[in-house]
Specification:
It is built from 13 helices and four strands. With 301 residues, it is mainly alpha-helical. A hairpin with a 3-residue loop joins strand 1 and strand 2. The two termini are 55 Å apart. It is found in: Cell inner membrane. This is Cbb3-type cytochrome c oxidase subunit.
């Protein structure tokens, strides 16, 4: 109701709801007081299937009482809770308020569990079996949908268990990314490279950077077009971690491998988004989750 830009709709909903409830009471009153024209045997004269006659019997009292209770309940409920337009009700209840209260209650209950990890270094947390069990559960709930249950990702979703990082790889960077999210953009570069054949030549040059199978003649032609990509991926193709530009020489392909995949990336570009989790996780949970993720690629360190 807070989205209404005019009191008209608030009043419209409130009046329509109130009238609907009162109309039920009026209908009950009319049906109980109206006398139908009947015959001497208390039938209305309506007959179905030759011998099924309609009687003019009163409504069962239990049904009438239940109907009255329903109407009263509707009015009381509308007075106590938000039901009539934007009227908040006497109790001031809202789904947002209830959610906030429940989140605070849960946070207070789990605070002692996470408190012991607040002053610990990432290396210590990653070495703590209980912390890693907690981190794994958090990962399964909030991260596995994209990165997989084994954290090895998939096409367009980074592998978090290797040492190939698009951005920073330290604990602080991982915490920031989990809390605030991250957006990676590869702009369409076909116009800057040239025509379709120039894009294909460039694709073969990119393949050559990682020692992947390629056409050496096309790669030689494409090298001259590399300048359009060097601003982000560097003159040697090893990327720029600060910008989140991937290393194209290591054989790790986030958006698919091969000539067609590279041509598609150069032509269309793409946008990857890691959603922010700060609204779902508190700072202590993010700290443990970040330590878990950090530990996935630092097990041997």
């Amino acid at each position: 109701m807070s989205d209404f830009t005019s009191d008209f709709w608030h009043l419209y909903v409130a009046i329509a709801t109130l009238v609907s409830i009162l109309a039920c009471a009026v209908l009950l009153w009319i049906s109980g007081t109206t006398k139908a024209a009947t015959h001497a045997d208390n039938t209305t004269g309506h007959v179905w299937d030759e011998d099924l006659k309609e009687m003019n019997n009163p409504l069962p009292k239990w049904w009438v009482y239940l109907f009255i209770i329903t109407v009263i309940f509707g009015l009381v409920y509308g007075a106590m809770y938000p039901m009539f337009g934007k009227f908040q009700g006497a109790l001031g209840w809202s789904s947002t308020g209830q959610h906030t209260a429940e989140v605070k209650k849960v946070d207070a209950a789990i605070a002692p569990v996470y408190a012991k990890y607040n002053g610990m270094a990432p290396e210590q947390i990653a070495a703590d079996a209980q912390a890693m069990a907690i981190g794994e559960r958090l990962f399964m709930n909030y991260c596995a949908q994209c990165h997989g249950s084994d954290a090895r990702g998939g096409k367009s979703f980074p592998n978090l268990a290797d040492t190939d990082w698009l951005g920073g790889s330290d604990h602080a960077y991982i915490k920031t990314t989990i809390a605030q999210g991250r957006t990676g953009v590869m702009p369409p570069m076909a116009a800057a490279v040239g025509g379709p054949e120039d894009v294909r030549n460039l694709a073969h040059y990119v393949l050559s950077l990682s020692g992947s199978p390629h056409d050496s003649v096309r790669a030689t032609e494409g090298k001259g077009k590399w300048g359009a990509c060097a601003a982000c991926h560097g003159p040697d193709g090893k990327g720029m971690q600060a910008m989140g530009a991937p290393n194209l020489t290591d054989g790790v392909w986030l958006h698919g491998w091969g000539e067609e995949a590279i041509v598609r990336a150069v032509t269309n570009g793409f946008t990857n988004q890691m959603p922010a989790q700060a609204a779902l996780l508190n700072e202590a949970q993010i700290n443990v989750l970040a330590s878990y993720v950090w530990g996935l690629s630092n097990k041997a360190k």
